[in-house]
Amino acid sequence: MKHVGSVAGRELRGLFVSPVAYVVLALFSVASGIFFFASTAFFSEWVMRLTSMQAFDELARWNLNDQLIGQFYSSMSVILMLSIPALTMGLLASEKTNGTEELLLTSPLTIWDIVLGKFAACALFTTALVMIIGLFTALLFIYGDPEVGKTLSGLLGLLLISWTYVAIGLFASSLTRSLVIAFLLTFVFLIVMLILPALGQIGGASGATEILSWISADTHLTELVGGLVDTADLAYFAVMTGIFLVLTKASVESVRWR
């Protein structure tokens, strides 16, 4: 796997040659700013209302992390869910469309070089998106006093969930030559993962509800946003990312047998 860095560098350059990277960065930055200032305005308005009503007990329970940063992170996880399919749709599907897949597979690169290199490139890009979220959050440390640990654990959750989404998108991209289908496959899968806990509650069986809640990435993100860094949640993201990378490797390798 010594060529992973070369593949990642090539993929990153390809992202910035196309307008996709710039469009995603611009739209994500604008969306982050809108949601951040909306969350801040909502928090300030409610603090003023509670103060005017002299509801000091309720006011004491309000804090920047739970009522502002947590809400902001939750909103941005949805924006990541919308943005990442646009980044991953062409990772492998474009190789098929451009006719370069056969050249890639017959090169000295191993399948893992290709899969991990493409994953690393997109994971680095999504890390930059999470850093944008972190820059907005950092403004609160200038004017307020949020909890450092809770704030960082939430950012860690966003980073891990973004990498999991990238692995899912990479797998979807390996299944088709159509960028549109790859985008839709990824988006639908992420939506299903998001609503799994609700589907479990509709079913009524407590065991099924627990299993579906565990499978949903949002459940584990919520724990991290709440400041609870549990090894079980960290293991979940590592396992899910690993599973979809293995599935992607198997999908790419199957091309050689067709």
Brief summary of the model shown:
This protein is an all-alpha fold. The protein is 84% helix and 0% strand.
Domain module count: 1
SS field, number of helical segments: 12
Query: How large is the radius of gyration?
Result: 20 Å
Which runs of at least 5 residues are low in confidence (pLDDT < 50)?
Answer: none
Beta-strand fraction estimate: under 5%
Description:
With 258 residues, the chain is mostly helical. The protein has one domain. It contains twelve helices and no strands. It has helices spanning 4-17, 19-52, 56-61, 64-88, 93-98, 101-105, 111-143, 148-174, 179-203, 206-215, 217-225, 231-254. It is elongated and about 70 Å long. The mean pLDDT is 85.
Attribute tags:
single chain; 258 residues; 0% strand
Topology:
Elements: H1 4-17, H2 19-52, H3 56-61, H4 64-88, H5 93-98, H6 101-105, H7 111-143, H8 148-174, H9 179-203, H10 206-215, H11 217-225, H12 231-254
Helix pairs in contact: 1-7, 2-4, 2-7, 4-7, 4-8, 4-9, 7-8, 7-12, 8-9, 8-11, 8-12, 9-10, 11-12
